[in-house]
TrEMBL record:
The keyword Glycoprotein applies. It is found in: Secreted. This is Protein CREG2. One of its GO terms (cellular component) is extracellular space. The lineage of its organism: Eukaryota, Metazoa, Chordata, Craniata, Vertebrata. Belongs to the CREG family. It comes from Eudyptes sclateri. InterPro entries: CREG_beta-barrel, Split_barrel_FMN-bd. Keywords: Glycoprotein, Secreted, Signal. The keyword Glycoprotein applies.
Amino acid sequence: QIQGMPYGNCLLLSDGPVNNSTGIPFFYVTPKDNTVADLLKNPVASLTLPEADGNFCRKNVIDPEDPRCARLTLTGQMVTVPPEEVEFAKQAMFSRHPVVRKWPRSYEWFFMKMNIEHIWLQSWYGEVSAIAVEE
């Protein structure tokens, strides 16, 4: 009923094991999720990450969704993780989210990652700065 309309979803993500963060978001997903079914047809996506652990918000006991807390928005293409990267994706996801090991196998889980094309940092009530992907 909402074909062609963008909508958001909360997905577990990891950018690598705790001792090997890469900055590349990996996801463990199922094609039974409408979001994933849509991404397989049109892989353009955006991901917004709040400053949950930043010094300002933590020090001042401010909700990470408060506009005074920075947020990073990544946009790019969601792709299936190629076979040569699956082991790394598995280590990345399972080390940070051990519960996914217990998810029902009948859901046909697989790994996706975002090939980041643009990065924006929004801080303090709407100021937005572009950040080079290489950074």
